[in-house]
Write a structure and sequence with these properties.
Order of helices and strands: HHHHHHHHHEEH
Strand order of the largest sheet: 1-2
Largest sheet: 2 strands, antiparallel
Shape: globular
Radius of gyration: 19 Å
Distance between the termini: 36 Å
């Protein structure tokens, strides 16, 4: 598949862990149609991203009907990495065809920009592919491997634990605060107390959506 035909489809940019969780939930049974009602606990944005990712990867057709690729990815659990590897080779034929073992980070970034996404969404497009490729053990340059880790570091470094003096907190509790000054006056503050590691997928996605919106507003 060439670049132009790839660009005609909405590219995948849902968090890869969310995508993988969605695949695992289908192990109990794949319905006749995949739509946003499949994930009631997810936000509207995440539902749309999941469905778009399924379409881009050829896991559902235009009407939402599951494909053979989805059935293989769900049912062949012991072979899931190899199944996903073939799906990536088909869906990202252009970038994989460049030989990822010899692709520089700049080349990679330039190619991924051809999907037309910008800012945080472009970063999410890159993050999904790199994490999916890493999971599927798709051969990549060590430079891209470091880029995969860097994406994860940037994601977690957005949340800076803070301390609250003279307060006894349960072990593992984090105090996180993000404040944005509005252009027309006033401030918005996002406070979180708890352990991010213990949040379920929907709550974690909701938290980072709010956090990303505040960061995007700042820019």
């Amino acid at each position: 598949m060439n670049v132009s035909s790839e660009r005609n489809r909405a590219v995948a940019y849902v968090p890869f862990t969310t995508f993988l969780d969605a695949i695992k939930t289908l192990e109990h049974g794949i319905p006749n149609q995949i739509d946003t009602s499949m994930w009631p606990s997810y936000s509207t944005a995440i539902k749309a991203q999941l469905l778009g990712s399924f379409r881009f990867l050829g896991l559902v057709d235009a009407s939402g009907k599951p494909t053979k690729s989805l059935r293989a990815l769900v049912h062949e659990k012991s072979n899931r990495k190899d199944v996903l590897k073939e799906i990536l080779r088909t869906s990202y034929a252009g970038i994989v065809g460049m030989d990822l073992t010899k692709t520089s980070p700049r080349q990679f970034d330039s190619y991924m920009r051809q999907y037309g996404m910008k800012g945080e969404t472009h970063k999410k497009v890159i993050s999904f592919f790199l994490r999916a490729a890493s999971y599927a053990e798709l051969p990549m340059s060590p430079l891209l491997g470091r880029k995969t880790r860097a994406v994860g570091i940037r994601r977690t470094s957005r949340v800076q634990p803070q301390t609250r003096p003279n307060a006894a907190l349960p072990e593992g509790t984090q105090l996180t605060s993000k404040q944005v000054v509005l252009r027309s006056g006033g401030r918005i503050t996002l406070n979180f107390e708890g352990s991010l590691l213990n949040l379920d997928t929907s709550d974690r996605n909701f938290f980072f959506e709010l956090f990303d919106k505040l960061r995007a507003y700042e820019k």
